[in-house]
Structures are given as C-alpha cells and as structure tokens.
Amino acid sequence: MRILFFGMLGMLTRQPLAALLAANVELCGLVLPAEIVPPFELLDNGRSSTPITPIRSQPQALNLLSIRQLESPLTLASKNQVPAFAVRDLAAAETITALSALEPDLICVSCFPHLLPPQILQLPRLGCLNVHPSLLPRFRGPAPLFWASRAGVTKTGVTIHFMDEDFDTGDVALQRPFPLPEGITYPELEAKLAQMGAKLLVEAVQKLAIGKLPRQPQPAGFTSDPWPSDADFALDLSWSAQRAYNFMRGTMNWERPYFVEIVGRKIWLETAVAYRPNAQQSQQQTRKNDTLFIQFSPGILQAISRVI
Predict the structure, then answer these.
(1) Contact 88, 51 (CB under 8 A)
(2) DSSP states of 147-178
C-alpha cells in the first residue's frame, strides 16, 4: 500500500508520520502547505508561484541538526527517502498531475489546515483518512483542543475518519477516548493525543489493508467550531473555579489575555495559579499584589493579573 501523507511541521503530524514509517508502510510522498516551509528549503528558493514545488532533500546534513530539527516531519521524510512537496494551490492541474504521478493507494492526513478538493480526494483507490484530536462529531474544526478545554469536558480523544469534501464530517473509522488530567497544559495534551493518534492511524491502515476497517456515518446536528476569537477567552463566573483553572491551563499556548466581568468591569488575567474547589469569600474578587482571588460557582480561582 502506497501512502501519500499531508500535514504540518508539528507534533500532530510528526508522530503519525513516524509511526507509519516505523510500521514499514510505503510512504510515497509528504505534502505540506507552502506558507509554512522556509524558502531556502524549496528547490525554487521560494521565488516562483507554481502550484506545487519539491522540497529539498538534504540527508547529508542530518548530523548538524538540533534535536528539534531531527524530529521534524521534513527530516523524517529526508532520512527515509520520501519525496516532499510544498503546495500552494491544491486544485491546480499541475498539483493534481504531480500527486497522481506518486500513485497513492491511500492518503493520510494529520493537522493539514486546508480542505482537500474532490480531485485529490478521488486520487487514491482506498480513500483518505484523517487523524482528528477529538471524539467526533464533537469539536470539529481547526482548534479542537481549545474548544474541549473551554467546554470543561472531562475527556476528549482521537478519531480516525474517512474524509469527504467538508472539515471533519466523514465516516468514523476508529476512536479512542482520553480522560483529561487535572490542569493538563496544551503541550502535554497535544503530545498525548499525537501519540494516541499515531497508534490509531497505524491500526486503521492495517485494518484497511485487509478490508476490516469499520466506517460509521456521523450523526446529524453537529457543526464545526470556528477559530477562537478574543471574546472566547472570557471566563464565566457561573463556571466552577476548577473549570476556569483547567481552561486557562489548557489554552496558555495561545498567549491571549483572559478576562472576567465583575460588576460591569473587565478584569484581565495572565495565568491560573491554583484553585480551591469549595472555598467562599465575602467579595467577588480580592487582590494581593498582582495575585487575584476570584469567586466562582463554586470555588475560588487564584490567578495572576495582567496589565492591558
């Protein structure tokens, strides 16, 4: 089975790609969006606007790279003689021709930010599988970890699903739940789900190869979550202090200010420090230097204030 892989440069691409390589799957190509590939990595040095451009292969330089660079999907591809491409226009005839020439039996996707057009979805005889870090149909869209943290759920997980012409709406193949530990940060959660998604993708590919991969249509009535706006970093005093704490911990990577409205005034917060689940105080908020103690329902959140 020849697999064409679409992704980004982060962990949610790196781990599934590495797992497929470790499973001795034949990778016929890696496709990345051109906007994330440094110009010096491109054979045209980023000077052309062609729809698809080969990415340089430099295995001779591997011993000079940092640990982080050694773990890059591009380095993995180079080390394993997998051709890599930067794509600017997925629907262009030149792109379709170049990817068709790779003769993929299956396309695997993890963290790729753009919709695949019908011409690409129809290329592989076995279809296209996506690794999505949520339990679909909940938390569709580009930021599932953010919305899981904001919703205050106690578990999330990973879904492997067949792809269609919309984001994250195709038939579900495999799912694995992941209980959310107290105060887990985004990097910690991303690492756990990337590892889980990698194992699940290999399992899906192996089951697909022998015709035993299930597929179940997603139920109707669910929509896609948008990219978070500044307003989505608001805390609600009707939440528990535990929920506010976990939300702030799980979304710190966004580096956005949080705020809560108290008596019509916005209070800006930087970092969640701790919470006391059942504590009560006489005022909605108290302060000690730059530390705020805010009454939620129930509990008190301790957080560092932010100057805006």
Answers:
(1) yes
(2) HHHHHT-SEEEEEEEE--SSTT-SPEEEEEEE
